[in-house]
């Protein structure tokens, strides 16, 4: 089912009145709900890049920073709160150079390596397969292993799958036992390569298709484990890649990946903190463009896979700004403001309405890299505005999507892209309905009348994420400037819920 939220009037940014209130309506079609929003839409991505792993997820058992068996305690506990459904690892471009064999066994014997792609940092391999899969178990999330097709071998990838998942009496399973893990892990998601058109080997789609067919042949299902194999897909607008892959390998994959970043479209990526209103709206325009990108890749997939058996897997998305001044350019450490929070909520709204084809997404990345949930500096940590969106939206994981039609004002960004100022996700689960609402307008509040016929409502609760300025963010000094707060600006009369949503804010309401 494809539901498109509908557009009303178009305004120009410059014609907006100052601090006015706009009116919007939302029609909720609770009786048409059927599609489940897979929890994997809320997935994360962790790469050996900058301080995502070392200093972020992992500090080692001997660290002065409080840890649980080497995993950073404050970060672990914050992630546990998010109900992370799936985590992709070890990259990205790191994955296509990764030799997993160096990251298992006694730590003192693990070889060091230069992380060529990401700043030439020396990697000591102390966080490897066991550490990652144990973390996933502790978090209760599915691991998504990104395999090395770029510089690895078929034998290496096949052996890795066996090491992780086989319970047989074989050298690989016995190596795992020797390394302290008796029972195999369950590993469902296996990526066969990453960005094979770029850092993953600079291949042509035809060549990669043949390699994919070969590699996947030897990635076997051991001991009841069932792999969901994901082919390395296109970036952004490369529809030809999707076409060739679907044509040549559609019968051998369960998922096909896609990468889409919200980057600044001026002559540099742009600062995470210092941006003007035009740049803000251009960011929102670029972020919302992911919808047409998903639709176009999906339409190609539909031609080869009418029954929608193959999942589109958006395994890298998010904002990509210039690195924070004074930090290593190869470490992609960036701050995170209310603008990023709106990119997160609006993107998740888009994803939630395309789950007929889109089966997983992984925001880049979980800690200290790009649009992170969490930032750390030494023993300090902060939760970003994006973290709070994921916290607020976790109610939609595995809930039933409820179609909703939005009528509101629209504006155009500098590329003439249409921006709907109000966005929503409505879902229901176990007799509870959740309505998430975003107001992307920088100045005006929105009075939203939500028509919800045929739903009995006895109680309502709400949470809001907002701040005075769009560039507001949490810092290591003031880490609680932006956080979720109680929201009570709503009134229910008959079947209509009227909500007053401040400018640049995101709300989730629980209706019981
Ligand atoms: O997320 C950062 C990088 O972006 C990944 O390593 C790569 O796959 C993509 O180009």
Write the layout of secondary structure elements.
Layout (H helix, E strand, L loop, with lengths): L9 E2 L9 E8 L14 E3 L21 E2 L2 E2 H10 L3 E4 L23 E3 L5 E3 L5 H11 L2 E6 L6 H12 L5 H8 L10 E4 L12 H13 L10 E8 L3 H11 L5 E9 L13 H12 L1 H15 L6 E10 L17 H15 L5 E7 L9 E4 L2 E4 L1 H9 L6 E2 L2 E4 L2 E3 L5 E3 L1 E8 L2 E8 L5 E7 L8 E7 L18 E2 L3 E4 L2 E6 L3 E7 L1
Parallel strand pairs: 1-19, 2-23, 3-6, 3-14, 6-9, 9-10, 10-11, 11-12, 12-13, 13-14
Antiparallel strand pairs: 2-18, 4-5, 7-8, 15-16, 17-21, 19-20, 21-22, 22-28, 23-27, 24-25, 24-28, 26-27
Bound molecules: alpha-L-arabinofuranose.
Structure, briefly:
By secondary structure, the chain is α/β, with parallel strands linked by helices. 23% of the residues lie in helices and 27% in strands.
What does this structure look like?
- By secondary structure, this protein is α/β, with parallel strands linked by helices.
- It folds into two domains: 22-35 and 402-511, Immunoglobulin-like, CATH 2.60.40.1180; 39-46 and 80-363, Alpha-Beta Barrel (TIM Barrel), CATH 3.20.20.80.
- It has helices at 73-82, 129-139, 154-165, 171-178, 205-217, 239-249, 277-288, 290-304, 338-352, 385-393; strands at 10-11, 21-28, 43-45, 67-68, 71-72, 86-89, 113-115, 121-123, 142-147, 189-192, 228-235, 255-263, 311-320, 358-364, 374-377, 380-383, 400-401, 404-407, 410-412, 418-420, 422-429, 432-439, 445-451, 460-466, 485-486, 490-493, 496-501, 505-511.
- A hairpin with a 5-residue loop joins β19 and β20.
- α3 (154-165) crosses α4, α6 runs parallel beside α8 and α7 packs parallel to α9 (338-352).
- The longest helix is centred in the middle third of the chain and has 15 residues, at 290-304.
- The radius of gyration is 23 Å and the shape is globular.
- The protein starts with 9 loop residues before the first strand and ends with a strand.
- Residues 1-17 have low confidence and may be disordered.
- It binds alpha-L-arabinofuranose.
- Alpha-L-arabinofuranose is lined by residues 47, 91-93, 194-195, 316, 364-365, 370.
